[in-house]
Protein 1
Amino acid sequence: MSIKKGRLVKSLYGAGTGSNIAVLWILTSLLSFFLVNRYVNIPYMDEIFHVSQTQRYCNQDWEWDPAITTPPGLYLLSYFLKPVLGCHLVALRSLNFVLGVVCLPAVLFDINKQLSGKAFSSPLVLSSLPPLWFTFLLYYTDIASTVIVLLAYDFALRNAAILSSAFCFFSLFFRQTNILWVGYIMVTLITNDLSFYDPVLSEATFVDFFLTITSFIGSVLRNLGKIWKKLLPFVFVFAFSMGFLVWNGGIVLGDKSNHNAVIHLSQMNYFTTFFFFFSFPSCFSPLFKSASWKPKIHSVIFSRTTLLLLPLLLLIVKYNTIIHPFLLADNRHYVFYIFNRIRRYWWLKFLGAPIYAFCYIFFIKNISQYVSVLDFTIITLATLLTLVPAPLVEFRYFILPFLFWRMKVPWKSKNAWLAEFFFHMSLNTISVYIFIYRPFFWHSEPGSLQRFMW
């Protein structure tokens, strides 16, 4: 039985996407995948470890490479798919490509439908987030981890406790910090059966935060007899995670010496800037359409909130900016050039404080009318615990926090999401071009091409 193109597009990418946008998405992704595999036909950067470990598993050699710091979920998935895909480099990369180009938009489409009651074309916008999209083309762990966590969230929204907890469990085999999002997913699931005080953030006061948390806890305790069956599978997931921490002696596999947990509050500054940068075409364009945009900008810059934030942000910048040795040791990542410039001039990092303040204020303004107090509290907590303990700044750490926050903010119009989509895809096209056609050499490795990437 044939499936009409429009119906297929709608089922995979969203009701308002349109065939032309979907075709552009697929063709750009396919062309990029083809070019990467043509010009980079040997494992590159972290792929060296991932591909090697997977091919060991494919040969039923279960020895672990201590240089790898993430769990073996991707390698086990590839091992089970070996009869279908094989274990050569292109086959391994193609697994990520299918997960990113087909599975991720489909899951995001369904999540958006559960959240808003209708899906309006956000899946391709979110899937095109440049640091995430680039991993579709290589054999990295990020896209598989992201899809599985989002599947768990999707089933939680559908009130399917067993399936949600199962995918939460599987997610721990891809990234250890996914346990933090398991907590949010569990809360999402049990609130389907609870009634408690939980106002919208834009209408809440500080007292409402206390009332919401106490009301939620009270509701959980009163309804334990009704929700215990939903909680029980998650108790197993958390017990498994704690058992791993005890057995492993920490959250990091392999080399723990370079991945010690710290308090790195500047990570939240970087994240809000990241959110602002990749969201501004749709989140912030309505502001500039208004005739009163100048007074609005002025009111933000010189507001009481900004004046209160600035001293705190300056203190964080001065005393809690951590530059990990790895950050300045590898000039193949874009983040290297940001921090290399900042390091050259002692005063430059302090100029970030007003930018961070601006980003925080607009972040809150954009999400406050779409999230409840409980949602805001739990997602904030998960974001803090994901980012703040990490000494190393990597854009991939921001992917899941970005998606969970961004899914809450609807696109104001078709033009808004189109602007964000084309902004992302333009960056993706440029990044692929630079990756393939602007390689360089290290003096220490004259025979090996190095390439720029996220």
Note: The CA atoms of residues 80 and 203 lie 50 Å apart.
Protein 2
Amino acid sequence: MQAISRRLAQESLRPAASASSLNSLYPLAHYYNGADHPEDGFTLTPKGVGHLVRKGTGGRSSVSGIIATVFGATGFLGRYVVQQLAKMGSQVLVPFRGSEDSPRHLKLMGDLGQIVPMKYNPRDENSIKAAMAKANVVINLIGREYETRNYSFEEVNHHMAEQLAVIAKEHGGIMRFIQVSCLGASPSSQSRMLRAKAAAEEAILRTLPEATVMKPAMLIGTEDRILNTWAHFAKTYSFLPLIGDGSTKIQPVYVVDVAAAIVAALKDNGTSMGKVYELGGPEIFTLHELAELMYETIREWPRYVKVPIPIAKAISTPRELFLKKVPFPLPTPNIFNLDQIHALTTDTVVSENVLTFTDLGIVPHKLKGYPVEYLIQYRKGGPQFGSTISERVSPDAWP
């Protein structure tokens, strides 16, 4: 018995052995561990993550080999990306800058210990490096469609993304970098957000030519900021303002399909590296047609007030003028968002001869049906008022 005790004591005093075992479990840990002198000159591996060792059957209790840092994971698209990664057995590091409750809803999506919240400061480089230290995949979902007193369009949509790319290159162990931009991002756009997104794409591909850029169209889903906003306004004021004459064309996409596209790009053997994908839904709507779909789902009689673009800009301009001149935060803009009004002056649809969902092996869902059924919560008679949309749509309507 004494011999066994002495042997156990000797084993516990061997730090080198435990360190080597840790390196065998996390072979990327030695590339960058938050030290003051990171490795220089590294770029992304051309093999992607396809060659990682995987264990298990592919479920949430398996090991996919992916350790992903998802910036912007607490946002709308973020929760779906985290869910897709977690259910395949990936470890997801979730940097957040709000309260401790911000990432709470994400922890249930993965197995025990697989979702790791990490408080960080986007303006602190060391904080970003710590969040990225043990990762081999970086996904940037940070973005904002309106300005605040503390963060401008350019800082949130451009400079933060460029900083992540620079740090990922210095890291040396990042195998994939995915930047989520916006469909319609262009240096010539009237929208400051879309111009900032275009600048971010250029900066990232210049720093990391192997990065993958996803450009989704307007996202539709349970927590979206378009149909929910419209339905709430229509229920409150009994009408819906249409910017212009409602003829602007858009190609909205189901948020789950975009998350699936991001994960599909990670699963390939590097074929999506260095490429740009435009992700739009299978149907093109005008703003008026999308509003009609919303009204049909909430069982309300359509009532519209067409607001000419110059008047819409005049209504939304005061917030932009006083945003940084008053000592208190101004309300978040909803329908009358000046930058979005600029964006809606031109059609936003997928271009010709570009990479799309098809190149990732994904068939996007049509909106009419389950993707918009969350709007039944706005029905006057309650969610059970009448039949649900999916009950009235034939299976042939689905892709």
Note: Residues 153-171 form the longest helix (19 residues).
Protein 3
Amino acid sequence: MHVVHPPKTPDSAGDEDQAPELLRTYQTWKGSNIFFLGGRFIFGPDVRSVFLSIFLIVAPVSVFCAFVARKLIDDFPHHLGVLIMVVVIVFTFYVIILLLMTSGRDPGIIPRNTHPPQPEATDLGQENGSGQTPQLRLPRIKEVMVNGMTVKVKYCDTCMLYRPPRCSHCSICDNCVERFDHHCPWVGQCIGRRNYRFFFMFVSSATLLCVYVFAFCWVYAIKITHSEHISIWRALIKTPASIVLIIYTFLAVWFVGGLTIFHSYLISTNQSTYENFRYRYDRSENPYNKGIFGNFKEVFWDSIPPSKNNFRAFVRKEPELPSRVSGANYVNSDVEKIPSDIEMGDRKPVWKNEVAIGDGGGTNGGNGGGDLHPHPHPRRSSWGRRSGSWDLQNEIASIASGIGYSDRVSDRSGGSLGGSWDVAVK
């Protein structure tokens, strides 16, 4: 990238060494992700589990090809035996590609705000000393209407934004993710709006692969039974590789097959794993249910929105801010620093001089929001407003513009948040 520098002046000549450094977005990324090939692939911090998953797929298939499929090549007419090995090899590569497409892409990360929105509520519960300005707080939870039903949206202290509906913060990757489903340790990535389709295709294809290997191991044992006129158990003893593969695939199919059935149910009812365990929607209460056909269409036929992050774009390195500036008039400075995000666990944040507010969008039932970053001095909000009330419409509408709801969403929190807005659907 060619950068044109402004002409030097006597005042700027001495500041040449202090010019901001240009870095790629992935090099300044504040989440816990790991990037490969210059930011072209993004993984979670537990990326090593991807290699374990690949080994658990490739190893049994290799044993199958060496000790079972190779022996069946000549047992079928018209060279059909060759297809047994060809199909299992091609299908294995297909499963691995789906695994990499699930784990190596942006799951739907919402970019963080560089500045917090302008607070609108004054904290009157604390006694302010003489000369101190009352502290302002952002409301922790807002209520919006989706298809006539009330949905809570929660402020994320880590990303400094109000999460749109169905978004949650993952403490493992430390990102807010659109339509967050869960963080899968086997693929080393969050499962969200942009990779859920590939995740389901991966687990369902792995199920079919297990069934394929399981079935042909029995076919090989039956061939031995007929050719040597012995019992099936004696035939299995003569092929220990088949015994190992039958046991392995039988156990594996309970795992990946169970996931396939469970996520088929979730897709048919338009729920995420998180929503199913946290809210337990009934059919009449789920505001996102579009019917079985509409729900499957949303997952498999609707276009996947582009990533909201350009990890290879050049950005200026942000200067480090001082830890605290006296005289700040709004912050979360009286909030204790939490060592890790509480979205994915059962830990509760500790608020000084404040009662914890109810739930509204954590990942496993936490109070939601991650590490709470104090802001050392008042800043102009990202909308260029320094005082007055803050409009929730601008925040959620701008973030949720690509989420894909055809639902009408309106705010119910009152005050200056009146009115409604439509989230566009592609």
Note: Residues 20-123+136-318+333-422 form one domain.
